[in-house]
From TrEMBL:
Gene: istB
InterPro entries: AAA+_ATPase, DNAC/IstB-like, IstB, IstB_ATP-bd, P-loop_NTPase
Domain (AAA+ ATPase): residue spans on this chain: 99-231
Species of the source: Salinicoccus siamensis
SMART domains assigned to the protein according to its UniProt record, in alphabetical order: AAA (SM00382)
Keyword Nucleotide-binding recorded: yes
The name this protein goes by in its record: IS21-like element helper ATPase IstB
Amino acid sequence: MSDYQTLLSNFEALGLNNMREYYPVLLDKVHTEDLSLTSAFLEITDKEMKFQKEKKMERAIHRARFPKVKTFDTFDFDFQPSLNRTAVLELKHLGFMESKENIVFIGSPGVGKTHLAIALGVEACRQEKLTLFINCHELLIRLRAAYEKGTVERVLRRYARYELLIIDEIGYLPIQKHEADLIFQLLNMRYETHSTIFTTNIALSGWGELFKSPETAAAILDRMVHHVKIYKIKGKSYRMKHT
Ligand code: ADP
Ligand code: MG
């Protein structure tokens, strides 16, 4: 093998795949532009770092299990004038996570609650925060199954560890008393440690009924809304935009 080929396979063995790919181009540039060794190394390592960061982000987004990747760029704030654009865009800086605040998006179907929750989750992934998106119904199924298997403590601890947990669609399906207790335990573990984002179609005043018990609902709301930002979206469904 020539030195050139060995170098390329060294890049590969070190996991520097972008450097391996870009090296021939760089070599050309070194000759045509009379690039210094330091400049050449700087350029190729910068590229590799950018590439690795990109990959890392892609993996984080994949692991967060968003049903679909959505971003703020594609959110039409003009369509939802009840929503304070500046306040919502401020959330991108994740200050709410620093202060362990929760976020609730309330509104009827189609107003963009899930879109905004995912957009924030994607931002969190970009900023290397361990993130998980889960539908409330699915979360309850998993918690109940774990409870029946006797592993609920461990599973709760796993969900409690995410730096950002997005619980989507609270209130779309009925919640049993026992399930409400499991949600309470989870929120209690996350309380003042990590932020949680909730989306719901039910005003907080209706949660007593949703959780079948005013006491459990009060305990959940207490953990949830002690440090919280609530966004009520009062507009029309985006799905009806063209009808
Ligand atoms: P919700 O969770 O409130 O029921 P979604 O966030 O699922 O609503 O929105 C329904 C669909 O409409 C999604 O495809 C979403 O991306 C899109 N959508 C909703 N609101 C907006 C908006 N203001 N700008 C762009 N797309 C939107
Ligand atoms: Mg939704």
